[in-house]
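4.2 Preliminary Data

To establish feasibility before requesting continued support, the project team ran the inverse folding procedure on a target of 319 residues. The structure was first converted into the token representation described in Section 3, and no sequence information of any kind was made available to the design step. The complete token record follows.
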């Protein structure tokens, strides 16, 4: 790992003192004060969830970034964030709270990277709108509570991450290289993109990552690219990432490694990807920062845009 380009955000670096604890339940709720008369719409920002406080903090930062704009939408009374797994506030907890507050319509906005069984199966099932008894039984086995809200639920489409990730990647690669373009006549550069992966949607994930790689080669001047998985699909092994790095090291002078993960989790960015970098054949030729897609202002802008579009007809119907 090149120390000149491996600077870590102090709040992300493994081994640094943890920041002060936060009350995540408080940060996961925003309400209009004073309440707007007749406002009966809630917005629920749903993410996968993680055992890592650092990961959750980045998603709660998205909530903080957009809450005021979302509450300014006519008819919106509350904004809540829910974690699908591992921690509270859960989806069920937040839907129940909406019901208790008299919310009649909830716009559910998934903050997920590309398609997965979470977006198609898990979130609707947890919200009590799935007719798949097998999936509901699996959730019960995983101790994920299912709650059928009294409020009407409208599910937002997934964020089209393709263009966003390309722009995000360009910014992060240039930051690693000190704003130099990879094809500026200096050493040749390769690029390894590391994602979580999906067994059920493997074709879609590979297509998504090949699209990003094509952008890196065509628009950023990267000589060679590869991608690898680091999640359940590969049993959380660092070996696929090491293999991808070492394959490119045979053909280029230096390899840039970028995690295409929504947020920072030390298990992935440090223990899996970071150790793959440090234990590869030539770590001194690898440029890596343990960062993530977030923080990314475009995510917040999309949340506000899609919520505004979906809330407009609800406000019209009420008024």
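Position-by-position output of the design step:
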């Amino acid at each position: 790992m090149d120390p000149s380009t491996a600077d870590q955000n102090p709040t992300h670096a493994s081994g640094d003192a943890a920041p002060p604890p936060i009350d995540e339940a408080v940060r996961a709720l925003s309400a209009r004060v004073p309440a707007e008369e007749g406002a009966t719409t809630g917005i629920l920002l749903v993410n996968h969830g993680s055992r890592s406080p650092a990961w959750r903090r980045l998603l709660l930062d998205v909530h903080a970034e957009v809450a005021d704009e979302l509450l300014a939408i006519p008819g919106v009374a509350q904004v809540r964030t829910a974690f699908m797994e591992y921690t509270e506030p859960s989806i069920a907890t937040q839907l129940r709270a909406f019901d208790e507050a008299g919310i009649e319509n909830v716009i559910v906005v998934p903050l997920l990277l590309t398609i997965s069984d979470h977006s198609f199966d898990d979130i609707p099932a947890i919200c009590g709108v799935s007719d798949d008894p097998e999936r509901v039984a699996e959730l019960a086995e995983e101790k994920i509570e299912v709650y059928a809200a009294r409020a009407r639920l409208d599910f937002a489409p997934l964020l089209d991450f393709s263009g966003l990730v390309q722009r995000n990647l360009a910014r992060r690669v240039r930051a690693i290289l000190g704003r130099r373009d990879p094809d500026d006549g200096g050493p040749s550069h390769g690029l390894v993109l590391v994602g979580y992966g999906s067994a059920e949607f493997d074709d879609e994930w590979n297509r998504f990552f090949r699209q990003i790689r094509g952008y890196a080669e065509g628009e950023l001047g990267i000589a060679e690219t590869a991608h690898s998985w680091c999640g359940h699909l590969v049993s959380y092994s660092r070996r696929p990432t090491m293999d991808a790095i070492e394959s490119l090291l045979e053909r280029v002078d230096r390899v840039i490694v970028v995690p295409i993960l929504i947020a920072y989790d030390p298990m992935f960015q440090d223990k899996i990807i970071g150790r793959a970098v440090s234990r590869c054949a030539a770590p001194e030729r690898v440029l890596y920062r343990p960062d993530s897609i977030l923080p990314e202002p475009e995510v917040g802008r999309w949340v506000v845009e899609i919520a505004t579009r979906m809330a407009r007809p609800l406000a019209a119907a009420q008024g």
